[in-house]
Design goal:
Elements: E1 4-15, E2 18-29, E3 33-37, H1 44-51, E4 58-64, E5 67-69, H2 76-81, E6 82-85, H3 96-106, H4 111-125, H5 140-152, E7 158-162, H6 170-185, E8 189-193, H7 197-200, E9 205-211, E10 214-217
Parallel strand pairs: 3-8, 3-9, 6-7, 7-8
Antiparallel strand pairs: 1-2, 1-4, 4-5, 9-10
Bound molecules: adenosine-5'-triphosphate (ATP).
Adenosine-5'-triphosphate (ATP) binds near residues 20, 41, 44 and 45.
GO molecular function: ATP binding
Pfam family, one: ABC_tran
Keywords: ATP-binding, Cell membrane, Membrane, Nucleotide-binding, Transport
């Protein structure tokens, strides 16, 4: 049985007189992976940022796990459950473990829990060997995996990835792609804005296409 995680009767985004998108009956299901495609400028990043509460939107009848919520103001229940990962993740110049621990510490998690989750996430993302590296010197693929580990420790119900493989090739790209199914198996829904054929063709990934301001479910 499929369970709706996030639904909205309507999500409309306008810039002045221009309507970027006007989506009816928007639905994301629990523990499901989606790729969000569309031509440059279709609104993919904007939609992810709307769902993350980073840009305002006109919304009607939004529900999260069945309970009514608003997107503006963006409530704590969504802030705790939804994590957005930028295409070019910003690293603090502290250390790799400190970068991964950051969000959990900001939420006031106990030290032992932070340590346990950071270790688990580093192993999951394959970045344990980077423990002592200067975050500023990491490659694009390494940064992306540290950013995924930083998101994973928060145990999000919904993870929004903006072009997670756009700047990667070869093994780095494969490593990031391999992490996606493990997220949904752990109960996290994932929406990836992307143009990457390999992500689009992953097994059990649903396709959403933004075209002319509408969302096509494929
Ligand atoms: N604050 C704003 N005011 C006006 N127009 C904006 C604003 N923010 C974004 N846009 C426009 O909205 C459109 C959608 O941008 P968005 O970045 O969401 O597209 P995208 O589908 O992610 O594109 P790409 O594939 O190139 O990353 C673009 O034409 C952009 O210029």
């Amino acid at each position: 049985m499929t369970v709706a995680l996030l639904t909205a009767a309507r999500l409309r985004k306008r810039h002045g007189a221009h309507t970027l998108f006007d989506l009816r009956d928007f639905t994301l299901e629990e523990a499901s992976a989606y790729v969000l495609t569309g031509v440059n400028g279709a609104g993919k990043s904007t939609l992810l940022r709307v769902l993350a509460g980073l840009v305002p939107v006109e919304a009607e009848d939004v529900r999260f796990a069945g309970a009514p919520v608003t997107l503006r103001p963006y409530p704590r229940v969504l802030r705790d459950a939804i994590v957005y990962v930028h295409q070019h993740p910003v690293m603090f110049s502290t250390s790799v473990p400190a970068n991964i621990a950051y969000g959990l510490e900001a939420r006031g998690a106990p030290r032992a829990l932070v340590r346990e989750r950071v270790e688990e996430a580093m192993a999951w993302a394959g970045v344990t060997h980077l423990r002592g590296s200067d975050p500023a010197t990491l490659s694009g693929g390494e940064k992306q995996r540290v950013a995924l580990a930083r998101a994973r420790v928060l145990r999000p119900r919904l993870l929004l990835l903006d072009e997670p493989t756009a700047n990667l090739d070869g093994e780095a790209r494969e490593q990031v792609i391999a992490l996606i199914p493990t997220l949904t198996k752990a109960g996290t829904s994932v929406v990836m804005a992307c143009h990457d054929r390999d992500l689009i063709n992953l097994a059990d990934v649903r396709r959403l296409k933004l075209r002319d301001g509408q969302l096509e479910y494929r």
